[in-house]
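Dear colleague,

Following up on Tuesday's group meeting, I ran the structure prediction for the two-component complex that the binding team flagged. I've pasted the input sequences exactly as they went in, so you can double-check that nothing got truncated or mislabelled along the way. The structure tokens for the whole assembly follow below. Feel free to forward this to whoever is handling the docking comparison.

Inputs:
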Amino acid sequence: MTDILLIMFAITLLYMSIANRLLTYIRLLVLQGFLLFGVTFLALNQINVANLVLILLETVIFKAVAVPLFLNRVIKRNNITRIAEPFVPNFISLIIITLILVITIVLSNSIKDTNLDKTFFVVALSTLFTGLYIITTRRKIITHVMGYLVIENGVFILSLAVGNEMPMLVNLGIMLDIFASVFILGIFFNKIGDVIQDPDVNQLRNLKD
Amino acid sequence: MISIFLPGAILISVLLYFNRNKIVNYSLVIFYALFLATFAIYQAFHQNSIELGFFKSDALGVLLLLTLAVVAIFALFHGYRYIATHDESRKSRGLFFSAMTMLITATGVAYLSNHIAVTWIFVEITTLSASVLIYHHRNTQALEGVWKYVFICAISITFVFIGILFLSLSLKQTGVEDLSFDSLRDNYAQLNPFWLRLAFLFIFTGFTAKLGLVPMYTAGIDAKDKAPAPAGALFSSVLMNLGFVGIYRFYAIVARTEILPWANTIILIAAFLSVFVATVYMTRIKNIKRMFAYSGIEHMGLVMLGLAAGGIGVYAAILHIVLHAFVKPSLFFQFNQVYRVYHSKSIYDVGNYFKYNRAGAIVLLLGFISSTAMPPSGLFVSEFLIFQSLFVSHHLIILFAVLILLTMIIWGFGSNMFKLLFTPPMIINEARIPKISPWESLSQYLLLAFAVYLAYNPPMYFVNLIQDAVKLLPQ
């Protein structure tokens, strides 16, 4: 069952590579949040209940509800246009994400470690690289933030792979999630909206040598 | 003592944020400086004691904590001068000192952390407090600087976390669940080399954002440029040392395993590229503050070359970061006064500094000699030892390439510095130049002299600390 959820998660990455509208990205992040909720529920069966409830609440409230709602508000408040404006055509993006998936599968098959759950490893790594890819190929600052959220989801999956042995690391991962997202989004994006009229990365190119 | 220092320092930081009264504000800052000094001295007298389960005052931690205490006290004094000369509002003054104390506290505690996850948490706190300082001026450029800094640091902190996850994967079969550095060093034989490689790659890349090394160095440059100079001084000295501590403690584990040659190659490549990038920028840069920041990249590149070369190079690397932490802040502190004279960072708008502030001009001259490692600079000793270690470990091509690059750096640094000191500026309204007391340069002289003293006539205690820190690596 976890495998099905994780594979669905990988499919959302493919969809994300060809998504045109910012709203689609937000919906995909919501879907990813719910998928992670399911994965956490099924995978972490050996840790104590209080900790599990904390982690589950975090995935649902934070990843699936609060951050997407907040992203939506930021987009409305700053009058950001609805298009994601990638630098590369969607078709090429799709091929690159597919390549990322294939390469991580090949890489994970070369690992001779029987303790490793390979689905976790493949999905986590490809999510990580997809996030980096989204950051490098999209023009708007808000899509950079979304790429960062995708990276965090990948890190969360990876932390679930060791979650039963070291639940402390999952908790730390949650701390990273909350700290970085709240900080980047909350304090900060409001400020960018106030100071810069058009939230485009080209506005942030004054500091150079 | 950490159980007193950490809550106490956080309390002071919160009080500074809420307080609006000038006298209370400054007395809190003075009290904090004394508190920090007491803490550092206490730790120095209680070496290798374990506190709160996660902190251990080993030689490396104590050495850098003492360095931090010296630099931080001067930085707080210059912070006070900075605020006094800029007519800051009460709110921004409170926020500035609150963030400064938080940054210093988090850095100091992170030095002593003996657990990789605890180090990670405090590194994250330094990012938070540093970003407040970078955004001090509340304008578009500061916003750009802080956005880049926060975003790159967030990604690099995620990288470190991924590295920690891989590290825990490499421990999965062994049954060891303790991620403290001591336990990892003891159980090195059981670590799975494949996962350890991945862990090293990610943790190293992550900490380069703080250390200022290729690939993540970019954010730090903008940060040091846009932050007020006293904060920039902290970023370019003690915060870089924090990145070094993170990498060094993890390297001490890797150095015991079979992947050491591979790890050394990675470090050598990153370090050489850092020196190269620093050379490219420093030979054509026109912004003085950014030039100082790039000089830091060059020095960290040299430090990592020493570490990868091994032997005497490790000793030299630790000596180099300590001396660099005294030399670089003095340039940043002095730059603040330069800016008050010319109101510009561009090399085209400045010049003839000897005429306007003689004491300060001599600081800049000595700072230039110090940071380009010409004798009698203290850094000369450590750089010489680093080159010696490169020679002994047969990295001759790297050695010659680095020597050529360093010559170019001296040329680039020198041509800008001498322009600032001796050539008259294009346009200047001499009536508007403020009179700056020579006393404000005193702390810079002290720092520079201290670096020379530690290099040429080191006290036994200092040498022992470095030697104990080197002993973290297998001999």
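The first strand of chain B starts at residue 50 and ends at 51.

Cheers,
M.
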